[in-house]
Amino acid sequence: MTQSIPVTYVPARNTIFLSFALAYAEALGASRVYLGVNALDYSGYPDCRPDYLRAMQAVFQLGTKQGREGDPITIHAPLVQLKKRRLFSLATNWGFPGN
């Protein structure tokens, strides 16, 4: 993984998405939030890395009633460790058009 942040970086993008998802999930009484980030073969975004997801999981635990009462909403990022070839294969198998 690269240490430099690309010029295409959007400040706090996934933090904003996860904040809205967390609020909505708690309002629904949901137990999970899914995020489609990828840390392998990526372009260096800080909010697509496993350490970021761990930190946000702590926010989910500490920043909600549900989390403080022992039933935290968990972040699931099933694509985070998949290589691009595997992602493309999954997308193709699920019927998404490829270029």
Summarize the structure.
The protein has 4 helices and 2 strands. The chain has 99 residues and is mainly alpha-helical.
Please give the domain count: 1
Question: Would you tell me the structural class of the helices and strands?
Answer: mainly alpha
Biggest beta sheet summary: 2 strands, parallel
Estimated helix fraction: 40-55%
Q: Output the helix-strand order.
A: HEHHEH
Counting DSSP E segments of at least 2 residues, the number of strands comes to 2
- What value does the Rg take, in angstroms? 15 Å
Note the beta-strand portion: 5-15%
Task: Tell the overall outline.
Answer: globular
What's the helix count? 4
Task: Note the gap between the termini.
Answer: 26 Å
Element layout with pairings:
Elements: H1 13-28, E1 32-34, H2 50-62, H3 65-68, E2 74-76, H4 84-93
Parallel strand pairs: 1-2
How does this structure look, described?
- The chain is mainly α.
- It has one domain.
- It is 43% helix and 6% strand.
- It starts with 12 loop residues before the first helix and ends in a 6-residue tail after the last helix.
- The model has no long low-confidence stretch (mean pLDDT 90).
Task: Give the tags.
single chain; mainly alpha; two-stranded parallel ribbon
